[in-house]
Amino acid sequence: MIDTSAFQGKTAAYFTLGCKLNFSETSTFGQLLQEMGVRTVAEGEYADICLINTCSVTEVADHKCRQAIRRMVREHPGAFVVVTGCYAQLAPDAIAGIEGVDLVLGANEKADLIQHLSRAWSEELAGKHTTCSITGTTAEIRSFAPSCARGNRTRYFLKVQDGCDYFCTYCTIPFARGRSRNPSIESLVEQAETAARQGGKEIVLTGVNIGEFSTAEGLGLLELVKTLDCVEGIQRFRISSIEPDLLDDELIAYCAESRAFMPHFHIPLQSGSDAVLRLMERHYDTKLFAEKVDTIRRYMPDAFIGVDVMVGARGETPEYFDETYRFLDSLDITQLHVFPYSERPGTRALRIPYIVSDHDKRLRSKRLLELSDRKTRAFYAKHIGTTAEVLLEKGTHGKAVMHGFTRNYIRVELRGQAPDNHLVHVVLGDFTHNKTALKITLP
């Protein structure tokens, strides 16, 4: 039994690095602490508890984690500092060695974060606490921490899966989050129904490798999608990211005719060179990827298709990068998420002899980002003057601007204020000054 009295009236500050899955988990931790009487710290106020949820997808991410931890310690002197997430699992000793850190929790222990925090907090109050690192091995990561939260956002993020069985040569995520696992469809439906009762209109399905969703009864992602589609009150669902080899044509066809699943897909490619894909030990080739894009376009001509692509991976010669560029240029996609390859300790990619310089990585990133801008602006431009349904979201802090997204994920901006979390029909106007959104006015 957790003694919540010690937490009454306390304040907490949160910082999340990395993916939407991390954001969802942090928001859930915040909800649990709020139920124990802990409020989120106000601007300029010192927090009693600091929670940092870390990422370790790249070396840059590791560096940002260390910076964030030190900044939180500095900005909230005397706070009880808890660090969890992927970096905490992979480098617990390095984090525990940072001055001011009190508790480090690995991936398996994160599911019981509140219990670990309560125990350590009691020791702190009794003057017996020292920095504690609680992490297990990758093989011991079996727990699943449910999460369906929106934090200070409009959309909810529902965690439907965790871990990954793919073990691509460049990636540490399976070591940080363990093997693929997921809860029951019934439990996920219950969480979605709770979000609906709380006024939620849109839910994003999150996970590490969502396409691996599978129940003991042999039900997969398609069955989950069909069941969630029936949840009353939720008017929009989005699938955050799905591997191309796990994106079934039947799932695409269902989403095209569904009540609430949006015409919006995000598909990791990583490389447009089959030779590099083999070095990465990905589970598909460029032919299959192109077929998936074509299938989406056949069922949903106006769908938003985002693509992850890595530049400068070991083995990516200039010729292989040119293959990637030509392949991406040929695809009818909407946007690229471009990120440079980063050396990760313990990965098999380190055995590949050809190394791309940081200078070349920057040049390649620049070329692909320019290609992405061209494709995104062309996609937006063809929708100018059309009518669209938009879910309005809170504006950027300190600015009299609201934003939102159409069903097919076109970002829009509204000058002035209006109720957020409302679906409105608008005419899409011209580009904003920075060409990252389309202007709208309310009818």
From TrEMBL:
<protein>
    <submittedName>
        <fullName>tRNA methylthiotransferase YqeV</fullName>
    </submittedName>
</protein>
<dbReference type="GO" id="GO:0051539">
    <property type="term" value="F:4 iron, 4 sulfur cluster binding"/>
</dbReference>
<dbReference type="InterPro" id="IPR020612">
    <property type="entry name" value="Methylthiotransferase_CS"/>
</dbReference>
<dbReference type="InterPro" id="IPR007197">
    <property type="entry name" value="rSAM"/>
</dbReference>
<dbReference type="InterPro" id="IPR013848">
    <property type="entry name" value="Methylthiotransferase_N"/>
</dbReference>
<feature type="domain" description="MTTase N-terminal">
    <location>
        <begin position="10"/>
        <end position="122"/>
    </location>
</feature>
<keyword id="KW-0949">S-adenosyl-L-methionine</keyword>
<dbReference type="InterPro" id="IPR005839">
    <property type="entry name" value="Methylthiotransferase"/>
</dbReference>
<keyword id="KW-0479">Metal-binding</keyword>
<dbReference type="InterPro" id="IPR023404">
    <property type="entry name" value="rSAM_horseshoe"/>
</dbReference>
<dbReference type="InterPro" id="IPR038135">
    <property type="entry name" value="Methylthiotransferase_N_sf"/>
</dbReference>
<keyword id="KW-0808">Transferase</keyword>
<dbReference type="InterPro" id="IPR006638">
    <property type="entry name" value="Elp3/MiaA/NifB-like_rSAM"/>
</dbReference>
<dbReference type="InterPro" id="IPR006467">
    <property type="entry name" value="MiaB-like_bact"/>
</dbReference>
<keyword id="KW-0819">tRNA processing</keyword>
<dbReference type="GO" id="GO:0046872">
    <property type="term" value="F:metal ion binding"/>
</dbReference>
<dbReference type="GO" id="GO:0035598">
    <property type="term" value="F:tRNA (N(6)-L-threonylcarbamoyladenosine(37)-C(2))-methylthiotransferase activity"/>
</dbReference>
<feature type="domain" description="Radical SAM core">
    <location>
        <begin position="150"/>
        <end position="378"/>
    </location>
</feature>
<dbReference type="InterPro" id="IPR058240">
    <property type="entry name" value="rSAM_sf"/>
</dbReference>
<keyword id="KW-0408">Iron</keyword>
<keyword id="KW-0963">Cytoplasm</keyword>
<keyword id="KW-0411">Iron-sulfur</keyword>
<dbReference type="Pfam" id="PF04055">
    <property type="entry name" value="Radical_SAM"/>
</dbReference>
<keyword id="KW-0004">4Fe-4S</keyword>
<dbReference type="Pfam" id="PF00919">
    <property type="entry name" value="UPF0004"/>
</dbReference>
